[in-house]
Here is the input.
Amino acid sequence: MPTTVKGVIARSKGADVELVDVVIPDPGPNDVIVRVLTCGVCHTDLSYRNGDIADDYPFLLGHESTAVVETVGSAVTHVEEGDTVVLNWRAVCGECRACRKGEPKYCFNTHNASQKMTLDDGTELTAALGIGSFAEKTLVHERQCTKVNPDADPAAVGLLGCGIMAGLGAAVNTADIQLGESVAVFGLGGVGMAAIAGAKLAGAAKIIAVDIDSRKTELAREFGATHVVDSEGLSEEEVAEKVRELTDGFGTDVAIDAVGIMPTFTQAFYSRDHAGRMVMVGVPNTTDRIDMPAIDFYSRGGSLKPAWYGDCLPERDFPAYAQLFENGQLPLDRFVSERIGLNDVEKAFETMKSGQVLRSVVVL
Here is the structure.
């Protein structure tokens, strides 16, 4: 029988979110119903609400979650009822052209639930990133569930489901930071702080944190920054010069743009050493454009890469980072700025925009 739960939806572009009844159908053969424990408030959910990603309203928001498997479909083998899992939106298919080339991190056909959840009047919901976990329960494909230790703090490990994994992976996977290299990270929200932590884990010798908020640059030291640049009031050229001053005039081996706007892109691009690597993990607006002299792009060499989900493989990376957290080597709990209820999501969006938190986490 269908199950009715409470969930947070965005009904129309820019409108405040609503807490409503959500109807979950019986799971298909490879689907599971999970009981949500926690869900981080990610900027991607705000982008869904504002119509910056798609216009398939209404959206069932939320995707950065720890949950417990409650009901499984008839063909499910990947998880069992009672398993504690972190939800992911890259459940690779193993069959598309990217997977066949041995690049599952670029899978073009990731698995999602076989059916739609609905409002109580039958209106179909679009689940954010195929998850929709600002809800008491949600319906996902079994491969969207990655098992983790049930004793770990769910609010902390659940953040691996999106933003924190994006930052960690941008440093470790996409940038492929090597022991002793220098790194600069531009923008110190949750993703940027995670990139700082990832650079430390990878063995970077010099980690430069850049932001307009001096509170964030100082906090970055707790995640591994060795140097900071307060960029408030500085031009893009002045920021790049300060980074070069901290690297013997050369610039960094790696520069990570964790914001995704042209000013931080430019700062990162010109802060690299000759042939340095740049990673863009901040998600740009659909109207943003990259504009710079072509000769600068050509003459500086190196590489420029986007990082999608930190180029992660959830089945490989989530358990590894969760174990590092349990070992005291990765402070995932420091990303949890506040714990809130389902009714507080709209307020959390405002708190996020003010820059006062790394992550608000809904606890159910």
